[in-house]
Specification:
Elements (H helix, E strand, L loop, with lengths): L15 H8 L2 H14 L3 E5 L3 H14 L3 E2 L5 E4 L13 E5 L11 E3 H12 L7 E9 L8 E7 L2 H10 L1 E2 L1 H7 L7 E6 L3 E2 L2 E2 L6 E5 L4 E5 L4 H4 L1 H17 L2 E3 L1 E7 L5 E7 L6 H5 L5 E4 L3 E6 L2 E6 L3 E5 L9 H7 L5 E4 L2 E3 L2 E3 L10 E4 L2 E4 L18 E5 L16 E10 L8 E3 L3 H9 L3 E3 L11 E3 L12 H11 L8 E6 L16 H12 L6 E2 L4 E2 L2 H12 L5 H7 L2 E2 H18 L5 H21 L2 E2 L12
Parallel strand pairs: 1-6, 3-21, 4-5, 4-12, 7-9, 9-13, 16-27, 27-31
Antiparallel strand pairs: 2-3, 6-7, 6-8, 10-11, 12-13, 14-18, 15-16, 15-17, 18-19, 19-27, 20-26, 21-26, 22-23, 24-25, 28-31, 29-30, 32-33, 34-35
């Protein structure tokens, strides 16, 4: 095959061919040439770091109608098709060679078969259309974390979203020199469109080639399937990190403020709808990132960066009362893409925005009016539950300036949070790295809510909140994290949080704003300023410390009976959770680390010992004595 890019010179927009040639990188040219040959676009545009190239793409998004201008300057609205509103897990697969088995939890397809299929769909798919060749960088540029990526897409919406979400990476590639080959290769086509949404969604495919560091995505528009630098690159990065001894995590990164000007940084993993963005956005603290972090050991410390520079956030329930900073950013005349909301007279509306919705408008499934029902007679909501907003982090008043620090921030604490109505206390600290990774991260579960499809209250296993994105066997992934904790000068503390604990009557035991207290307590712990009570599952706060924090931060009188109810050690539920985990890690996960089973076993013995003395439900205040260790 002739891979010389020169044969396609006539397709390039003015200046684009020269920009590409200037890189003088044969691998980059070969990759682009291959997919121009396959997809056959009529025009090719190259996005460099020159702001005029980003502007061109923004204008194209309006010109093609992929985005519709809204009333406020810089705001646009994009719609994905009714059946294209979320990540398509079933059709997202790893390409694996014959006889290779990745992990039963990971969705795979034979490499040759998968490539034949998806290349078949991509063949000639961009005829008459424009291909955007975009150079981006994962992580801040010019740093040990930087990973250059080249995105090819025929969607101006995808290219525009990436412009908001990621750092430009053309100069980063120049810096790497002409021989550099280690860039991620991302190919996307939205396929045939009908009223600007992908038509052939039954032919939607997202195939990941770990060996070639390439992802191919076709016949879809929803960001999670198409924004190659987000969850698609995340899978490639997990694989790469695993070979190189660093970590790619589904984690927020935030600054937490203590005495004087003290700031300590935390990273946190929460499955979807378990409070990740709301934690990253906590009042009084600062946000570095809300979704994906790279963690590296540098000089014996754990350093982290946000892979992104923007947020692709769920807009449902964003309102001026609960999210004043996001609300402000969503109403400022800066670049914002709203997706799958209700649009009426140039104004976007969504579920839970605390405004009166108009009686009619346009949303993700076309014309909408009050009382409209789906084919089964269920009322259609104003906006899709997964409707989103895309903004740059710097538009937020609480954006931490460390966002662009090439060396990242030092992580003092790692938080794991699930959605659990009956088992874990609101906050606790692990006894150490392995205890935390194994009993808090590796056992993370999230209960389904009425907001998701299917039955509410079903527990979904989601280790480190990363299950959907793992590209290596689960056992190896856990082992990598344990290894990462070795040889550090300062080991981050590990915490488990649970914002969803309920009492016997189904009432939440903690308030919406109480997470502000838990995070301040964690900050005091990593600063060595407060002690704790050791329980069989971890170390919990002293009542007096929380009482003081509640008074100072929330101006609230925190009663001892509230504390006692929240921090009751629920032994039957904890034992049941251990049983569930044993089942998963002995029956479903191949080669689970032995240390994991041992750690669970030890936790079980501690729980049984306490139950013997104190019964099933233990007032943890009692555990301050040495009694339970008998
Ligand atoms: C998530 O679902 O975890 C997201 C959105 O951050 S998506 O881009 O779809 O992955
Ligand atoms: Mn995410």
């Amino acid at each position: 095959m002739n891979s010389d890019i020169a044969q396609y010179k006539g397709k390039f927009r003015k200046g684009s061919y020269e920009a590409l040639k200037k890189l003088n990188n044969k691998s980059v040219e070969g990759f682009i040439s291959e997919f121009i040959g396959l997809c056959d676009p009529s025009y090719v545009f190259v996005r460099t770091d020159d702001p005029s190239t980003a502007r061109y793409i923004r204008e194209k998004a309006l010109e093609t109608g992929e985005e519709i201008p809204l009333k406020i300057k810089g705001h646009t609205c994009h719609f994905d098709g009714p059946g294209d509103q979320a990540r398509d897990k079933a059709r997202t697969k790893y390409l694996v060679g014959k006889g290779v088995s990745l992990d039963p939890h990971l969705n795979t397809i034979d490499r040759d078969e998968g490539l034949d299929e998806i290349r078949g769909y991509l063949k000639g798919i961009m005829k008459g259309r424009e291909l955007y060749v975009c150079f981006f960088c994962l992580g801040p540029t010019g740093s040990a974390f930087s990973l250059p990526a080249v995105q090819l897409t025929d969607s101006s919406y995808v290219a525009h979203s990436e412009d908001i979400l990621y750092r430009s990476g053309y100069e980063e590639l120049v810096r790497r020199g002409p021989e550099f080959t280690g860039f991620f290769k991302l190919i996307h086509s939205e396929g045939a469109l009908e009223e600007n949404v992908s038509r052939d969604t039954e032919k939607r495919r997202v195939y990941i080639d770990l060996k070639e560091e390439t992802v191919l995505s076709v016949n879809t528009q929803y960001g999670g399937n198409t924004i190659g630098l987000k969850k698609l690159s995340m899978r490639l990065a997990i694989y790469k990190a695993s070979k190189e001894g660093w970590l790619t995590e589904h984690m927020l990164v935030m600054g937490v403020y203590g005495q004087g000007s003290r700031v300590n940084y935390f990273a946190g993993a929460f499955p979807s709808a378990c409070g990740k963005t709301s934690t990253a956005m906590l009042e009084g603290e600062s946000i570095v990132g809300d979704d994906i972090a790279y963690l590296r050991k540098i000089d014996g410390f754990v350093k982290a960066v946000n892979v992104e520079r923007g947020i692709f956030g769920i807009i449902r329930d964003v309102n001026p009362e609960d999210d004043p900073l996001i609300w402000k950013a969503l109403n400022a005349p800066k670049e914002v893409i709203f997706s799958n909301v209700l649009m009426q007279s140039g104004i976007p509306y969504w579920q839970g925005d605390n405004r009166k919705a108009p009686d009619e408008g346009r949303n993700y499934q076309g014309e909408w009016h009050k009382g409209k029902t789906d084919t089964e007679g269920n009322p259609l909501p104003v906006s899709h539950p997964n409707a989103r907003y895309t903004i740059r982090l710097r538009e937020l008043a609480n954006c931490d300036e460390a966002l662009e620090k090439p060396e990242g921030v030092q992580i003092k604490g790692i938080i794991y949070g699930g959605r659990d109505s009956d088992t874990s206390v609101p906050v606790q600290q692990a006894f150490g790295w392995n205890h935390g990774i194994l009993t808090m991260g590796s056992t993370l579960e999230s209960e389904t809510t009425s907001a998701t499809l299917g039955k509410a209250g079903v527990r979904k296993f989601n280790l480190m909140s990363n299950l959907d994105f793992l590209s290596i066997p689960l056992g190896r992934y856990i082992e990598n994290i344990m290894d990462f904790g070795k040889g550090l000068k300062e080991i981050p503390a590990i915490f488990g949080v649970n914002y969803f604990l309920k009492g016997g009557n189904g009432r939440y035991l903690t308030g919406m704003h109480d997470k502000r207290i838990w995070i301040k307590w964690m900050e005091l712990r990593v600063s060595g300023e407060v002690s704790c009570i050791e329980t069989p599952t971890g170390c919990i706060p002293l009542y007096e410390d929380l009482k003081r924090l509640f008074a100072v931060i929330l101006n609230k009188d925190y009663r001892r009976d509230e504390y006692e109810e929240q921090f009751t050690l629920r032994i039957p539920e904890n034992l049941a959770k251990i049983e569930r985990m044993f089942k998963i890690y002995t029956e479903e996960v191949k080669n689970a680390p032995k240390t994991l089973l041992k750690e669970l076993e030890d936790q079980r013995s501690r729980l049984l010992k306490v139950r013997k003395v104190h019964g099933d439900y233990v007032n943890t205040g009692l555990l301050q004595s040495a009694e339970y260790k008998k």
